[in-house]
Write a structure and sequence with these properties.
Elements: E1 2-4, E2 9-11, H1 22-31, E3 39-42, E4 50-51, H2 58-71, E5 76-80, E6 85-86, E7 96-98, E8 105-109, E9 116-120, H3 128-136, H4 140-152, H5 156-166, H6 177-188, E10 192-195, E11 202-206, E12 209-213, H7 217-220, E13 222-228, E14 232-238
Helix pairs in contact: 1-2
Pfam family, one: Metallophos
Protein name: UDP-2,3-diacylglucosamine diphosphatase
Domain Calcineurin-like phosphoesterase: 9-200
Length: 242
């Protein structure tokens, strides 16, 4: 079981692309010791598009992958795959990758109570059809076929996907989010839950269950640092403040 250390950093939904390079700046700050931690949790959708089988997504991510592997010599890095970045295990040796099939990931805080928590990107427990489609998209053979189509189309498929992602509004508030969370809490069966995916930046406590939906890093380059005070706290910091 992974133990969440004090000062562990959580980042979700960086949605890194050629026009959005905040996560690269964050990694450089880690490398230069401007930001210090012994543990880094990447909660999925760190890239707008990164898939092992789709070669056109590799070149942009290669420097990030190399730097993450370098940082993993001194920092425990846990990468939960999202719905924009998946089938990543073959990219990494030292970074610990958890696919959707291994989520939610059960961890333990190092507070007095040794509180357990479930972590997930958030693209689980969805409506059955959507869940089926998302899992199907991770199929190796289908992805190799899509990679072939992308190649003969001169990478137009990946270009269109990335172009649409650049225009995506990342901070849309979900009006019925609390009721959506209540339903998800029942399925997690845990008293502490942390997700990304929804970009809502909210903390809810319902029926003695704590639920944290992390802010999207892509918006204001916000990340969270774990502190053990009288209770477990997640301090949100913007990269420009670090």
């Amino acid at each position: 079981m992974i133990h969440i250390k004090e000062n562990a950093i959580f980042i979700a939904d960086a949605h890194e692309n050629k026009n959005r390079r905040g996560f690269w700046k964050f990694l450089q700050a880690l490398k230069n010791n401007q930001i210090q931690t012994k543990q880094l949790f990447l909660m999925g959708d760190i890239f707008d598009l990164l898939i092992y089988e789709v070669k056109a997504t590799h070149a942009f991510a290669k420097p990030y992958i190399e730097l993450l592997e370098e940082l993993a010599d001194n920092i425990e890095i846990i990468y939960l795959e999202g719905n924009h970045d998946f089938n990543l295990e073959k990219f990494f040796v030292k970074v610990k990758v958890y696919s959707i099939s291994k989520q939610p990931l059960v961890c333990e805080f190092e507070d007095i109570k040794r509180t357990k928590v479930k972590l997930a990107h958030g693209d689980i427990f969805l409506k059955p059809l959507l869940q089926f489609l998302l899992k199907s998209l991770r199929n190796h053979y289908l992805l190799y076929f899509l990679n072939f189509l992308n190649f003969i189309c001169k990478e137009k498929i990946t270009y269109e996907i990335l172009n649409s992602q650049e225009k995506k509004y990342l901070t849309r508030k979900i009006s019925n989010f609390e009721s959506l969370v209540k339903d998800r809490m029942k399925k997690y069966q845990m008293n502490f839950i942390i997700e990304g995916h929804y970009h809502q930046d909210v903390f809810l406590k319902l029926d003695n269950i704590k639920y944290l939906n992390l802010a999207t890093f892509a918006y204001k380059e916000s990340f969270f640092i774990v502190k053990y005070d009288s209770e477990i706290r997640f301090h949100k910091i913007e990269l420009k403040e670090a």
